[in-house]
């Protein structure tokens, strides 16, 4: 079977997966965890067979449709799996980690970063989630997750500017106050990273990971004649797996207080 196959309604397996992923938002904790595990397995299988999780789905218009019809279709396009996971990274963290591990595109495949970019979506969600946070522990957990995902994206993906689109886009939830300081700091770090060459250690990590493809990488990294500290550096995602509640979709509120995420040196 082809991962590009579609139903009579022109829905694809990826669009159906996005619909199922969103079911975790309104499900019970137990159902959300079960749906999350299933979606994680399906996503991994689809990625292994060449599916592109960054492509949006929209119903096709009649053949020979003009530019206006095509633009209208794009306006009504459903968010891709990548968009959905980054827009709700705090609720779909394991899926976001998997997508970034596989080096998915972090921008709109059709229009590029000005349409949407991964860092932009992640920072917007972080800003909104921090405003809704009910405790210092929850805020620290949100910030640690965002930093971990950005570090993983820097390792496995190509980060693309703009961090914010060149033409202001109305925020879905306008707020009279400026963004939290933590969001401003992360945005400044991303902009600074794009204005200078990546550190040599990050380039080496990215190259070594590519040389060890295909997946899974961890068994191959563990066999390398390197100190454990360097192996952990090559696998930043392993430190995420050891964090409480980071391995499940839509974790419960009030997490234990934890320090900020610190990438391995």
TrEMBL record:
Pathway: Protein modification; protein ubiquitination. Residues 53-81, 244-265 are annotated as: Disordered. Transmembrane segments: none annotated. Pfam families: SOCS_box. It comes from the Eukaryota. Residues 185-234 form the SOCS box domain. GO terms for biological process: protein ubiquitination. Residues 65-76 have a biased composition (Acidic residues). This is Ankyrin repeat and SOCS box protein 6-like. It comes from Clupea harengus (Atlantic herring). The gene is LOC122132272.
